[in-house]
Amino acid sequence: MLKKMKKIALNGQSLGYAALIALAVLGPAAKADLIKINMTVDNSYALFLGTATSATTFIGSDFSWPTTETYNFNLATSQYIYVTTASDLSAAQGFLGQFENLTSGYKFYSNDAQWQVMATNLGSNAPYTGSATDLALLTTQIQLANGGGTFSNGWVGTTAGPSNGAGPWGARPNIDAAAKWVWYSSNGDSDPTTPGYNHAEWLTFRIAVAATPTNPVPSVPDGGTTLAMLGGALAGLGALRRKFRA
Questions:
Q1: pLDDT top residue among 119 and 214
Q2: Has residue 102 got a pLDDT over 60?
Q3: Which of 10, 84, 143, 199 could pair with 14 in a Cys bridge, judged by C-beta atoms 3.0 to 4.6 Å apart?
Q4: What is the rounded CA–CA span in Å between residue 132 and residue 120?
Q5: Domain, as residue range, for 90
């Protein structure tokens, strides 16, 4: 667990502006949900938004596990939230957080089935910036995982360790006690959070905005809503065309 190196995070106003840009690209009819995330990662992380097949927007990064970051923004229901991370391998590693879809009324914790994780086995140099290079690197690994590639053979469930409040971290503020520290287990360890160990990092966690307890990963996760609306619009235009011809 390293000392704090830096913290980069957009404020709520900037996040809202970025979300509005994303919605403008999707079109005015795209549905957006109000999202709230409270989270921390040992040892570090970067937060991205994107589709099921690509990382499109860098939100921020943090290198201090004792702090809890809170993010609030509106996000289209076809989008995903991505968290890239790596460990210093010295004592412990873990992702702890809660995801709230305030529009749908669902709250999920880092140990719930709605979260997925994939291991790249590419070392500790995870994409932590909004550079074109980092976005392309993360996008490549997302697509590999979607096809069952990467070290983890695609996206898998998280492996839970202790609950919030347990050692070596203690209670992390603004995160419910029901949340558990999680990681990817590369060796079948039932608790991969301690001791320090290289579990085929770097890792990426993700959750779908439209996820529910009964449908953790939407069946049409990437642009399905937009495509459906586009198809309906085209069908309507076709019907009008036939009507005028008649």
A1: 119
A2: yes
A3: 10
A4: 19
A5: 7-221
